[in-house]
Amino acid sequence: MMQETEHIRLEQRWVSPPEPCREKLEKLATELNVPLIIARILWNRGIEDFEGSKKFLRPSLENLHDPFAMADMEKAVERLNKAIDSGEQIMIYGDYDVDGVTAVSFLLKILKNLGTNLSFYIPDRLTEGYGISREGIREAQRRGVSLIVSVDCGITAVEEIQLARQLGIDVIVTDHHQPAEEIPEAVAMLDPKREGCPYPFKELAGVGVAFKLAQALFRKRNLDEAQLFEYLDLVALGTAADIVPLRDENRILTKHGIDRMAVTSNLGLRALLENTGLTGKLLGTGHLVFIIAPRINAVGRMGNAGRAVRLLTTENEGQARNIAKILEAENRKRKGVDDQIFSEASRMVTEGIDRESNPAIVLASEDWHPGVIGIVASRIAEEFYLPTILIALDGEEGRGSGRSIPDFDIYKALKRCKHSLLGFGGHKYAAGLSIKREKIEQFREDFQAVARSVLHPEQLIPKLKIDAE
Q1: Burial of 464 (0-12, 13-18, 19+ CB in 10 A)
Q2: What is the DSSP letter of 187?
Q3: Burial 230-250 (b: 16+ CB within 10 A, else e)
Q4: Distance (Å, rounded) from C-alpha 213 to C-alpha 235?
Q5: Cross-strand pairs, 362
């Protein structure tokens, strides 16, 4: 068994990339007029020619892909245009994390400028959980909504979208998560990861897919797309916060969004930059991921994520500053709860997990806040380098969050254990689940059995990728 220590120090396995062709490497270095070591770093990231290097080093909005290359985009734009022109009530329905909050805020800003009748809805993390909920659909009915546009969620909401249809509400799904075997019967399903979708870039964040919908809408209405670029600060924040690969369109949107943020007219972002001492500083993705994003996430974890949307869409400077202060307080509270759970979970691992016989962690407690267990699961997975699931119990049910390591697809693992779960969703590295208390022990055994069958000892040694020696 592991011995209890303050920090687990695991050896690292150095992984060097294949040796590139010297002649081609020298050609790239010459074309770019850079040292050989820079050319090699680019090569190791799959950038092997001048044109690819140019796109990577100088991301241009001119290189954005055609939004209509995404499956169902024509259907989505046709239905959205009809709703706008007919004055229908439209609800933007988003997730409560930064990706979802920025996607909701972005579409609210864009559609408001078109004179649309709008509202938004973000589910309560504690009472409704992730994604489109039946309560959210009922609320749409109460508001007289005839069209829901989901952002950063919806690809697995089969029953909920069926309910919406029964109530006479159309749904356009925009999502970027991995679809399940059955997809909902929505008016349009925008997700580059959909099977058969020809869109050339599959790794957009949720806010990125929302941006593509807006881009297609503007093209269809013959509007100037430059108006969209004014809100790329929101797109950059959501993209960076969701830790999607900063390649292709993600790189373009993030680069130009960060440039925009430095001179942002968004009062909420201004207030956040002011509160965090970033006003006037040269910004990078690290500032977005580690300073700005946690403050927006905190309000969804500890309170009501709707406040974050109001912060990012308000046109009142006083309101922006007041909400930003609330987010700051929520983030301090979140940090305290986070540290407490991490300490307890670490102790449970060191006292009760044999990493050789059970290369996966499944822990549960009634004392854990369900809003922060995802953060703590990520810290535990990093600390012990094992797939980790933490479950916050409430009565006879629990909500869990899982985080993984590179060689273990946690979503596929949960599919193999689904007989023990009430529900689950996610992707390769992160997932969420709901479970009956009585099923936790069986689930733990099943999940650890999957880990044993998949992971070999060398895969439990953290990799340190080396570009050159």
Answers
A1: exposed
A2: S
A3: ebbbbbbbbbbbbebebbbbb
A4: 13
A5: 389
- Render pLDDT for 439-461 as a digit per residue (tens, 0 to 9): 999 999 999 999 999 999 989 99
User: Each residue of 394-403: pLDDT tens digit?
Assistant: 999 999 999 9
- The CA distance from 273 to 103, in Å, is 19
Locate all alpha helices (DSSP H) within 353-392, ordered by sequence: 373-384
Q: What CA–CA distance (Å, rounded) separates 50 from 29?
A: 9
The DSSP H or E segment spanning 114 is none
**Residue 385 to residue 399: CA distance in whole angstroms:** 22
CATH of the structural domain 67-326, one choice from 3.90.1640.30, 1.10.10.10, 3.10.20.30, 3.30.420.40: 3.90.1640.30
Please report, to the nearest 10 degrees, the dihedral formed by the alpha carbons of residues 46, 51, 54, 55 taken in order.
Answer: -70
For 355-465, CATH gives: 3.10.310.30
What does the pLDDT read at residue 353?
Answer: 79
Give the SS3 label for residue 225: coil
- Token readout for 139 is 């609320």
Banded pLDDT at 9 (limits 50, 70, 90): low
Domain boundaries, the chain: 13-58, 67-326, 355-465
Name the 3-class secondary structure at 148. Answer: strand
Structure tokens at 240: 């960076």
Identify the bridge partners of residue 188 per DSSP, sorted by sequence position. 172
Quick check: pTM over 0.85?
yes
